[in-house]
Amino acid sequence: MKSIQRAGPRRPAFFLALAALAVIGAGGCYSSDYRRTMAANVSLLSDMSDKLADYCRTFFKLDDRQLSSEEMGEFYYAFNKANAFSSSTPREASRPSHRDFVKLLNAYEKFAHAADEYRLNGKPDPAILASLMSQHAQVRHFAGKVTEDLKKEPD
Asked: pTM for the complete prediction?
């Protein structure tokens, strides 16, 4: 006598339903995680901007040596990480925090590139340094805007 196989874990439909539930669950977790992840990225860019501003003020001197190109990579890594986060949240693009985060990203990228050019120039220049400090202030401004946006936005 043949046994009748019941619908269950061996059926493709079961696996498709399970996968759909996993995707929905992960999506729900991700969207509720937006605020925390956004705040972490804002903090990262803000802290790295502060560190880069300090390096600019000392003309990239670490003890008795010049900051290397490889060491500048950490500033670009922070940008790339934050930019990847921004790109992964298209559903949040209409939120004020997301719009201001894009402005923060643009300001940070401009500051990092200008600071690297200043470092490569090889000599301190008070006018360029003043411009860099203004760019740093712009990064801090947008970081503050995103933080305020997050406080005002509903979950």
From this structure: 0.79
